[in-house]
Amino acid sequence: MISLKNVLSATAIAALMSAGALATTTAPAAARVICNAEQDCWHTDAAAPRVPGVQFNVHPDDWYFHQRWENSDRHYRDHHEGRGYYKSGLWITL
User: What is the DSSP string of 4-44?
Assistant: First the structure.
């Protein structure tokens, strides 16, 4: 005969294993803010583009909220669909 203690122990172990498997398969959000040398900054969930001769600074997603955008050299640009980057305020599609 199976005791209630054994059933509860097995259930607890199964729940912990399921939670562990779920935790290892979920990926964190990959959002970030990218700025170029001309201080154009934009929010993206893609990696910084690789463009010969152009360098980008990559910041964590919450970096945006800790900046003072008014009266600053930095310019926050709107999210743009597709793969590319901003240059002098214009979106360059790759």
Answer: HHHHHHHHHHHHHHHHHHHHHHPPPP--EEEEETT-EEEEE
Per-residue pLDDT tens for 20-78? 655 555 555 578 999 999 999 998 888 888 999 999 999 998 888 888 878 788 888 88
Give burial (CB, 10 Å; 0-12/13-18/19+) of 72: exposed
Question: What are the CA-CA distances from residue 37 to residues 53, 58, 85 (Å)?
Answer: 11, 11, 12
Residue 67's identity, in one-letter code, is Q
Q: Which residues pair with 40 in a beta bridge?
A: 75
Asked if residue 35 lies in contact with residue 48, where contact means CB atoms within 8 angstroms, the answer is no
Only one residue has tokens 């803010």, namely 33
pTM of the entire predicted model: 0.62
